[in-house]
Specification:
Blueprint: H1 8-21, H2 24-41, E1 50-53, E2 62-63, H3 64-73, H4 76-89, E3 97-100
Antiparallel strand pairs: 1-2, 1-3
Helix pairs in contact: 1-2, 1-4, 2-3
Length: 101
């Protein structure tokens, strides 16, 4: 499994902009656009998805559908945790990891 560096910048910008404007629709549309690009250029497998690790040492995997669900309808604790992950990945000393598998 390889970290897809070509998607890091765009993903980080989308997350940073979400932290500023809280436009969930723009965030999800942007992440889905990246996912479609990965689908078209890496593998045409329908059973694969784009997912993220938000900082070095992060042991979870966050899929776009999970991000959308948490930010739209999730518990306050889950939202706060996800927003903290967003803040960490947009900080100067952290970097998002993007995978498609």
């Amino acid at each position: 499994m390889k970290d897809l560096t070509q998607y890091k910048f765009e993903s980080t910008v989308l997350i940073f902009n979400y932290l500023k404007d809280e436009d969930l629709d723009k965030l999800i549309k942007g992440l889905r656009k990246i996912e479609r690009h990965a689908y078209n250029n890496i593998t045409k497998s329908k059973d694969k998805s784009l997912w993220f690790k938000f900082f070095k040492g992060y042991t979870g995997a966050m899929y776009i559908s999970y991000i959308e669900t948490v930010l739209k309808d999730g518990t306050q604790a889950n939202k706060e945790y996800l927003l903290e992950c967003f803040r960490l990945t947009t900080s100067l000393d952290q970097e998002i990891e993007v995978y498609y598998s």
